[in-house]
Amino acid sequence: MAINNNTIYISMEELDVKQNKETFCELLNSTKRDGVEDVIEELESMGFFEAPASCNHHLNVEGGLVQHSLNTFYAAEKIWEGMKQLDSTIEKEVKRDSIILAALLHDVCKADIYKQSSRKRKTKLGDWVDCKCYKVSYKDFPMGHGEKSVILLLCYGLELDDAEMLAIRWHMGSWGLNMNSIEDQKCFDTAKELYPLVSIIQAADSLAAGLLERKFVDEEDY
Asked: What does the pLDDT read at residue 181?
């Protein structure tokens, strides 16, 4: 673990469910935003702090979702700091509290979709062994992805401004678009034009999953 500029960074090798939860909650509470405490209670009941970040890809392990959320925040904070040096207006348009809220809470929609299961896998020696895995179910609340996160947070009583809601809604970028919907495309483009936070969170989410969470061991090398 390393501390830099008052932010705690946890490496992939040190994934610690308890420590990550404490860091996550500390960052959220630092915003002093109305409804934050209620959100933390709801996330606890949903199993957010134990959930994986994916089924078969990045951080598909217990506690992976919180680690991904933290990684997204770390990346977003670095992008924000760098962009302020290139464009001084960014500091007025995007506040650190908004970075914290949008980055940490963009994927709350995933908290209830991964169910523990098991499967057989063949080792290099030819033996079949039972391995823990996750399956996906959208039965609890089939409301999409980014939009589901926004709706859940509002239902939990969190106060969010327009930029934060749109950054969470469109954090998947074009992957979250219905390409058959001109309305979707125009809404996404307009959100990016109006609020720099949208682009910051989108880029941070991609960097977190694509760079910070690269696998060190191929699953097939088991």
From this structure: 86
